[in-house]
């Protein structure tokens, strides 16, 4: 295990005041605390989820590796608990995704819930779908066995799958699904369906196509909970809707469910998810403020969409454009926070980034989130906070909750800046060690903000330890 060359980067930068909801980018203060760090493990194939297991080991899903790997947090040694042969992965955003433990794991129940994409077509064609499967762990052989599908046929894509899976304090499964990357790139002409809701008939015939852009709430057997919200007259698995790509989910104080969501260029969101609420996508990005975003629906172009060429910066006049403030929904909820909102007319084509301008956009690409409670021994800087990993900036962002846990306050602080794409994180039970999963490839912003292709520690687990005196 090598030492990480990060201490030199943890120079103190003055933390700007950033209590307002609307902030300019790059104003998060950098922590100067001298964390010890090491590379705990390497050789992971697109690792996606990391959870501190009830057995005291780190459990990791490998999106392209199609494996669940159990890692000893003392020495980084790895063992494979299962390889899932029917995972379908093109090494983009599909593959083996979320994982969550049954609440009584190793205390009378050994179930683990795993979400992944698969090919539902038995012939040569590919019908990419997602499913949630329950496995049972055998502590004697340290393997996962006896898979049972809880729900299958969920929407899946190579883009914006989301895929985070949690068990809530209410003993329900929560699963996020993104908008499938519709209305951009190779799916420019696919309409975004985040506002579409299932009909009673869809539910009856188990057609889950409208679950794009939703956060689902399921019974632990995959059924629809009897107390799920009734939205537009129908009770389904849908808990909240109007999402873009909510990759981070975390439960906070009082059973509150927080989510992170990737914004289109600006306006990544931190949301507080309440049953039956509408988070606005694609009509609203960030706050409903008509700043630097309007919904341009390529699929509704008056010139056939298929004849158009998608471009991030120039939209043809045939594509209808709708201001955020011209849309309304009685269920609409603003985000708690955006990272970051910029003004109308902002130049998204920063010459520092050239063809890879998305690295310079005022978004951080939030990939996961954990909640750190207040309590004895908890590092003061993280007490009652949300920690969010950034893909683009190779850093963890700390957002402080208010004492009642219902909103975000104060300055944002960046921790652990390295030249890596941070995919997910887990904490040790004493909250004094942070384990960060890194992507195997992709672009990250350097210290100066320009794109870097050479990742420092691809496909790894990085460990950062809070100093004993803090
Ligand atoms: Ca097939
Ligand atoms: Ca929103
Ligand atoms: Ca906005």
Describe this structure in words.
This protein has 470 residues and is mainly β. The protein has a domain at 43-294 and 329-398: Neuraminidase, CATH 2.120.10. It is 1% helix and 34% strand. It is built from one helix and 31 strands. The chain has one helix at residues 200-204, and strands spanning 29-30, 36-41, 47-52, 58-62, 67-71, 78-83, 96-101, 111-119, 128-138, 143-155, 165-167, 173-177, 214-218, 230-231, 234-235, 238-241, 248-251, 257-261, 268-273, 295-296, 321-322, 337-339, 366-372, 385-390, 396-401, 408-415, 422-427, 433-438, 444-445, 451-452, 461-465. The strands form nine sheets. It has a five-stranded mixed β-sheet, with no helix packed on it. Strands 2-31-28-27 form a four-stranded antiparallel β-sheet, with no helix packed on it. The chain has a four-stranded antiparallel β-sheet with strand order 3-4-5-6, with no helix packed on it. A hairpin with a 6-residue loop joins strand 25 (396-401) and strand 26 (408-415). The structure holds calcium ion (3 copies). Residues 269, 279-281, 284, 335 line the site of one calcium ion.
Blueprint (SSEs and pairs):
Layout: E1 29-30, E2 36-41, E3 47-52, E4 58-62, E5 67-71, E6 78-83, E7 96-101, E8 111-119, E9 128-138, E10 143-155, E11 165-167, E12 173-177, H1 200-204, E13 214-218, E14 230-231, E15 234-235, E16 238-241, E17 248-251, E18 257-261, E19 268-273, E20 295-296, E21 321-322, E22 337-339, E23 366-372, E24 385-390, E25 396-401, E26 408-415, E27 422-427, E28 433-438, E29 444-445, E30 451-452, E31 461-465
Parallel strand pairs: 1-26
Antiparallel strand pairs: 2-31, 3-4, 4-5, 5-6, 7-8, 8-9, 9-10, 11-12, 12-13, 13-16, 14-15, 17-18, 18-19, 19-22, 20-21, 23-24, 24-25, 25-26, 27-28, 28-31, 29-30
Bound molecules: calcium ion (CA) (3 copies).
């Amino acid at each position: 295990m090598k030492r990480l060359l990060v201490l030199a980067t943890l120079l103190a930068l003055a933390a700007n005041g950033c209590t307002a909801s609307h902030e300019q980018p790059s104003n998060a203060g950098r922590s100067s605390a001298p964390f010890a760090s090491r590379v705990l493990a390497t050789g992971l194939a697109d690792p996606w989820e990391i959870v501190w297991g009830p057995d005291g080991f780190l459990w990791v899903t490998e999106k392209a590796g199609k494996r669940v790997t159990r890692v000893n947090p003392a020495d980084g040694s790895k063992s494979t608990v299962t390889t899932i042969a029917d995972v379908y992965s093109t090494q983009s955003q599909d593959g083996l995704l979320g994982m969550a433990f049954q609440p009584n794991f190793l205390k009378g129940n050994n179930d683990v819930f795993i979400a992944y994409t698969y090919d539902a077509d038995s012939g040569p064609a590919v019908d990419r779908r997602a499913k949630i499967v329950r496995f049972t762990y055998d502590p004697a052989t340290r393997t996962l066995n006896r898979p049972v599908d809880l729900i299958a046929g969920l929407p899946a894509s190579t883009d914006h799958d989301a895929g985070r899976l949690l068990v809530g304090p209410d003993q329900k499964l929560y699963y996020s699904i993104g908008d499938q990357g519709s209305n951009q790139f190779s799916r420019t002409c696919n309409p975004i369906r985040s506002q579409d809701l299932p009909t009673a008939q869809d539910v009856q015939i188990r057609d889950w196509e409208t679950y794009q852009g939703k956060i689902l709430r399921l019974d632990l057997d995959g059924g629809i909970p009897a107390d799920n919200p009734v939205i537009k007259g129908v009770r389904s698995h849908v808990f909240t809707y109007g999402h873009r790509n909510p990759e981070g989910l975390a439960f906070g104080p009082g059973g509150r469910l927080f989510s992170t969501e990737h914004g289109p260029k600006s306006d990544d969101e931190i949301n507080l998810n309440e049953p039956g609420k509408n988070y606005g996508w694609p009509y609203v990005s960030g706050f409903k403020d008509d700043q630097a975003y309007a919904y341009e629906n390529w699929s509704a172009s008056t010139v056939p969409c298929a004849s158009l060429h998608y471009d991030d910066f120039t939209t043809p006049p045939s594509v209808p454009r709708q201001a955020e403030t011209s849309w309304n929904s009685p269920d609409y909820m603003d985000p708690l926070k955006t990272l970051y909102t910029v003004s109308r007319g902002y130049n998204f084509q920063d010459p520092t980034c050239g063809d890879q301008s998305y690295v310079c956009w005022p978004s951080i690409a939030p990939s996961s989130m954990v909640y750190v409670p207040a309590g004895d021994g908890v590092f003061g800087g993280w007490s009652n906070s949300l920690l969010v990993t950034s893909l683009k900036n190779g850093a963890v962002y700390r957002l402080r909750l208010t004492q009642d846990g219902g909103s975000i306050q104060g300055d944002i602080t960046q921790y652990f800046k390295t030249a890596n794409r941070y995919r997910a994180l887990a904490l040790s039970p004493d909250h004094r060690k942070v384990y960060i999963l890194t992507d195997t490839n992709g672009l990250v912003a350097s210290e100066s903000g320009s794109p870097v292709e050479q990742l420092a520690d691809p496909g790894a687990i990085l460990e950062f330890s809070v100093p004993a005196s803090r």
